[in-house]
Automatic annotation (TrEMBL):
Compartments in which it is found: Cell membrane
Membrane-related topology note: Multi-pass membrane protein
Superkingdom of source: Bacteria
Predominant cellular place of this UniProt entry's protein: membrane
UniProt-listed SMART domains: Lactamase_B
Native species: Zhongshania guokunii
The protein's name: DNA internalization-related competence protein ComEC/Rec2
Length: 795
């Protein structure tokens, strides 16, 4: 039984991570050939192979269906008219000005908006789309279940493709979304009659009143998260505290919460038996009923689905007096979850929850003593056992996890959750008594927060991003450490376990330079590394909502590269898309020195204005400003034209390796082309001028105001990078600019399409280049690095 389930799980996981799906005719032909081959094999091998083929075909079919629900690429940025059903209560986003976000599903066929781009009419429209995530920039958003006829502007799921960054696009797709976007002209959007009714809408209507009531308490956001899995109101400060103390799992209704409620139901069933309602099924029926109601209150998120399936398997075996091994139940639950959602393996909760249960089963295999599952020992098992999984997802490790959870789990499970459930039951009938019970829960949460804050002051979170060899060593070490007592010398496995934390992070060797253009959307952030030094040019944008690319992209990338200090930070100019996230970066990352093109207030480290002619030497490379600041040679060197222009050369060869230009426009480009502005040269010959570089970070994201023909000729880049958001509202890079680079023979890269891009130099020669995240998923499609190729034959 284990072998065929394992084969089916392996097939579904393999398809989920496949870079592309096979064509349906090839899939059908391969399946038929495979089934024919199975007839020649012995039974012991036949059924696992049949299960593998069936599961793989099912996962491919699911992938075809999900791909068909995606917004066609040709419709991105077009105005579409569609009828929508609102699926949840719109969530207010505290930006400036505030707006609302809600999920919706399209009903009926799409059509082109009367007020939109007429190019929409030339595209074949899909009959329907799947789930949509929409922003509403109006005063009064639609209500839960309401039907509206809206004009929307959509784009496919997309996020930052950068090492260490959260892949929002991947999360959107595996969560069932077909597109994201916003409602056009929300204040005049027609509201249609007829409210919809579904299980999700009914749940939202039932919990709306208690959600609003509980929110008035000091820790109402956490209380709502524990009761209804509504974590939208938990603040960033609270999440940071949970992360530092390893207690974030308490805020996601998962296996631990379901186990607590199962235990209450089991105890209640036994109590009923003692009171005279004797039945062998009392305990399992009450236990499952309690857990089912709790899962329904939470909206059946994926972690509760996994827990309920495992609980159902165990309770059914108990009720039928059948013996099912722990591993059989474990694999059966995993297979059922993957059948319900073949892409669940991409979710963090899937990995962490099944990893936690797996290590517990491994550690306690063959043990029947009830006292063996003590809270202290089980917490130690889970903390050690999850280290490889935490490293795989790039999460930090908190040494405070054990003491924090020893306090938090009993307090939440034995006191806070019972009080919350008691208040919820009393709320409709005795609201005054319910208020006192909720107050008790609020007070207990206050005590919990004080304990967590006290613990968090002791130690900080340890961030580690081990490579695959270290992960494999760590996994083997964990399996050895968690073997039952009596295994000789198992503690020696601590040594390879340390590989998770101590594995050397790759850095440039002697004579090497690594240049990485980070994907920060519509902005710029470029990381340069030599053997011993690190420079960051710009940090990317921040937004009114509080979101910023320092937290989302830059700091995770630096941590993944093992960088905890920047030798130099260059802020090209003060525009928000370049320096907006700088204060957050400098608050969380040590910086030795800052250069700026426009003065920024509040810099707490030594800083100075960049100026033409400033240069320094690092590990065989020369870094030099060719322009920047107020003295750039034009009358008004402010804004874009004050950008620091940084040239990087190989010291031995004098070869120009990379030219980073910020947002300079044509005026500064002409200044750079003048002979007296050539650094160390008195000739304007393009073949010998000081501007020539193999890699150019395109000025002003590829705007028409920059990248003149004369400038491109002088730089003569073999590679040009446009740091711009996908389908940004500015149209960067423009078609005219791409055409100019194509005619000069440059290969073009676009961070919005390719994600973060890295160039590696050895002894002054470009030796490696390409996207940092080489892996592609089947819903993303192939990426073409030569986005300028179609212009090469023009003119």
């Amino acid at each position: 039984m284990l072998s065929w389930m394992t084969a089916a799980i392996a097939a579904i996981v393999a398809v989920a991570f496949a870079p592309s799906l096979p064509p349906p005719p090839f899939l059908v032909g391969s399946a038929l050939a495979g089934f024919g081959f199975c007839l020649l094999l012995p039974l012991r091998i036949r059924w696992p192979l049949v299960a593998f083929l069936l599961a793989g075909g099912y996962a491919c079919g699911y992938g075809y269906w999900r791909n068909a629900e995606l917004l066609p690429v040709a419709l991105e940025g077009k105005d579409l008219a569609v009828k929508l059903r609102v699926l949840n209560v719109p969530e207010q986003r505290f930006a400036n000005p505030p707006y609302y976000r809600f999920d919706a599903v399209s009903l009926g066929p799409l059509s082109c908006s009367d007020h939109g781009d007429q190019g929409c009419n030339s595209v074949q429209l899909p009959r329907r789309l799947g789930r949509l995530r929409l922003n509403w920039y109006g005063a009064e958003p639609p209500a839960l279940g309401e039907l509206i006829s809206a004009d929307v502007r959509l784009r496919r799921p997309h996020g930052y493709r950068s090492a260490g960054a959260f892949d929002y696009g991947r999360w959107l797709f595996v969560s069932g979304y077909s597109a994201i976007g916003y409602v056009r002209n929300p204040d005049t959007t027609p509201r249609l009659s007829g409210a919809g009714l579904s299980a999700a809408i009914l749940r939202q209507q039932l919990i709306a009143a208690p959600l609003a009531y509980i929110s008035q308490y000091r820790h109402g956001s956490v209380m709502n998260a524990l009761l209804f899995a509504d974590r939208s109101a938990i603040s960033f400060t609270q999440w940071t505290l949970f992360s530092q103390t390893g207690t974030s799992h308490l805020m996601a209704i998962s296996g631990m919460h379901i186990a607590m409620v199962l235990a209450w139901g089991w105890f209640f069933g036994r109590l009923m038996a003692l009171l005279g309602l004797r039945s062998y099924l009392n305990a399992p029926v009450f236990a499952f009923s309690f857990a089912l109601v709790y899962s329904a209150m939470a909206g059946f998120p994926v972690p509760t689905q996994r827990a309920m399936l495992m609980a159902a398997t165990a309770l059914l075996a108990y009720s039928l007096r059948r013996h099912i091994s722990r591993w059989q139940g474990y694999l059966a639950a995993m297979l059922l979850v993957l059948v319900l959602d073949p892409l669940a393996v991409h979710q963090i909760g899937f990995s962490l929850s099944f990893a936690a249960v797996g290590v517990l089963l491994w550690a306690y295999q063959g043990q029947r003593q009830r006292n063996s599952l003590s809270l202290l020992h089980s917490q130690w098992v889970v903390i050690v056992g999850l280290l490889p999984a935490l490293g795989l997802w790039g999460f930090g490790f908190s040494a405070l996890s054990l003491p924090a959870n020893l306090v938090a789990i009993p307090l939440v499970g034995l006191a806070i959750l019972p009080a919350l459930f008691g208040g919820l039951i009393l709320y409709p009938v005795l609201p005054s008594l319910a208020a006192h019970v909720f107050s008790v829960a609020d007070t207990l949460l206050d005590i919990l927060f004080k304990v967590l804050v006290w613990l968090a002051d002791w130690l900080s979170l340890v961030h580690f991003n081990p490579p695959w060899p270290a992960l494999i060593l760590g996994f083997i070490a964990v399996m050895i450490l968690l073997l039952p007592r009596g295994v000789p010398a198992k503690w020696l496995a601590i040594v390879p376990l340390l590989a998770l934390f101590c594995w050397p992070v790759p850095r440039p060797a002697k004579g090497e330079l690594w240049l990485t253009v980070l994907d920060v959307g519509q902005g710029l952030a470029v990381l340069l590394q030599t053997r011993t030094k690190t420079l960051l040019y710009d940090v990317g944008p921040d937004f009114n909502s509080g979101f910023n690319t320092a937290d989302a992209v830059v700091i995770p990338a630096l941590r993944k590269l093992g960088i905890d200090r920047l030798d130099t930070l260059v802020l090209s100019h003060a525009d928000r898309d370049h320096a907006g996230a700088a204060p957050v970066l400098m608050e969380k990352m040590a910086v030795n020195k800052v250069f700026w093109g426009e003065r920024l207030s509040g810099l707490a480290v030594p800083s100075e204005e960049c100026a033409r002619g400033q240069r320094w030497h690092w590990d065989g490379f020369v870094f030099e400003f060719l322009a920047g600041g107020r003295n750039s040679g034009v009358k008004k060197a402010i804004g874009n034209n004050s950008s620091c222009v940084l040239m990087v050369r190989a010291e031995a060869r004098g070869r120009g390796l990379a030219l980073i230009t910020g947002d300079i426009e044509a005026d500064i480009e002409r200044q750079l082309l003048r002979p007296n502005r050539q650094v160390g040269l008195a000739t304007g010959d393009a073949k010998q001028n000081g501007l020539q570089a193999s890699v150019l970070i395109a000025p002003h994201h590829g705007s028409n105001t920059s990248s003149t023909n004369a400038f491109i000729t002088a730089v003569a880049p073999s590679e040009v990078v446009f740091s711009a958001g996908l389908h940004n509202s500015y149209g960067h890079p423009t078609a005219g600019v791409r055409k100019r680079y194509a005619l000069h023979g440059s290969r073009c890269w676009h961070t919005g399409q390719h994600g973060s891009i890295q160039f590696r130099y050895q002894d002054g020669l470009l030796t490696e280049l390409g996207p940092v995240r080489a892996r592609q998923y089947y819903w993303e499609g192939a990426l073409n690095p030569e986005i300028c190729a179609k212009f090469k034959s023009a003119g």
